[in-house]
Amino acid sequence: xxxxxxxxxxxxxxxxxxxxxxxxxxxxxxxxxxxxxxxxxxxxxxxxxxxxxxxxxxxxxxxxxxxxxxxxxxxxxxxxxxxxxxxxxxxxxxxxxxxxxxxxxxxxxxxxxxxxxxxxxxxxxxxxxxxxxxxxxxxxxxxxxxxxxxxxxxxxxxxxxxxxxxxxxxxxxxxxxxxxxxxxxxxxxxxxxxxxxxxxxxxxxxxxxxxxxxxxxxxxxxxxxxxxxxxxxxxxxxxxxxxxxxxxxxxxxxxxxxxxxx
Length: 262
Ligand code: URA
Hints:
It is built from eight helices and 15 strands.
């Protein structure tokens, strides 16, 4: 890693904001290779120098990677004037430059990667890379073999061109009476399903990331998404021990799995 300013190192290692850490340096709380330092702008090498705050060695990671089970009601943004953001849920982050890799709608749940690794994010989201994203969905309407075939051909959703082919797997169909007994977090009953008497459960895999894509694909075939949860992105699957709103750091192996998509 290349050399960097001491105050940036401290801020990126989670010791506080740039102005917080300047105060800590002035107060003599910071040592560099065992000696107290008084200046914020000295250059250090994160690979070879040892920086301590109040006697505790700081670990610097250039990148942080988290897997969040995004809950409903939270927006996929770094800041928002009205709603809580996914970044606010990552309370143990050291880095202040985290962002979500792509967007899930406010009412969509499931796997969202949160990182500050712009290169990885661009590669995962680049249209040419065709990274697969798989979702579980509850649909108001009867998904049939014909729907599966139509999705496999690509669907005209009113954009310049039809969507790329999508893989649709039917998991089950229920009548409205039955679905009222099944609870998916807070999606529990037929109130959401309007006049439809049949409810379908599906898994759908898409390779693009168009605005409201899955909802618009089902609308185009006369059906409606009433619950949507992302299960996987590329080779990375949501850890099913994470409840909505919970997150954890990605393991090194999982980061490698993601990079392995290219
Ligand atoms: N498709 C949608 O319609 N919404 C999402 O959040 C993700 C994919």
